[in-house]
Amino acid sequence: MNLRGLRSRDEPEINFVPLIDVLLVILIFLMVTTTYQRVAELQITLPEAEADAQKQRPKEINVGVDAQGRYVIDKNVFTFTTAGAFADALRRASGDSKDAVVIINADANATHQSVIHVMEAARLAGLVHITFATQSAQGGGAAK
Q: Are 89 and 122 in contact (CB under 8 A)?
């Protein structure tokens, strides 16, 4: 039994005109209520200063670690046996200076343990200033 007959059904459609009207009203409201601040440009003449170069630079101890776990302290090859022996070598390289900076130049493929050996030996030697040398990804010079 077909009670509706043969009437065709219209597909529902979305009327975008009211939506556009509402969006335009919101846009106008935002444009009117927005506060614009004009930043005044100041003509500033910065003072000039001349400083002498740093006269006393802390001693640097370059420690190299290659991918095979070999160590070099200031261009002297060192065979790692214990952290205490490595600390003694670092003390000799620092000349008993407590402000010396240990620069670790570790190969990208060096094990973490070999770098930890250097850090532990520096701690035992009383050297608290440690930095790592890196290289930029573009193949440029070394940066600290």
A: no
Residue 76 CB coordination number (10 Å): 10
d(CA 68, CA 123): 23
Whether 62 contacts 74, CB under 8 Å: yes
pLDDT per residue of the chain (144 residues) written in tens, 0 to 9: 566 666 677 788 888 999 999 999 999 999 888 877 666 665 666 667 777 666 677 888 999 998 888 899 988 888 888 989 999 999 888 887 778 899 998 888 888 899 999 999 999 988 888 988 877 766 555 544
Long-range contacts of residues 122-128, Cβ cutoff 8 Å, at least 24 apart: 122/87, 122/90, 123/87, 124/83, 124/84, 124/86, 124/87, 125/87, 125/88, 125/90, 125/91, 125/94, 126/91, 126/98, 127/61, 127/90, 127/94, 127/98, 127/100, 127/101, 127/102, 128/98
**What is the model's pTM?**
0.56
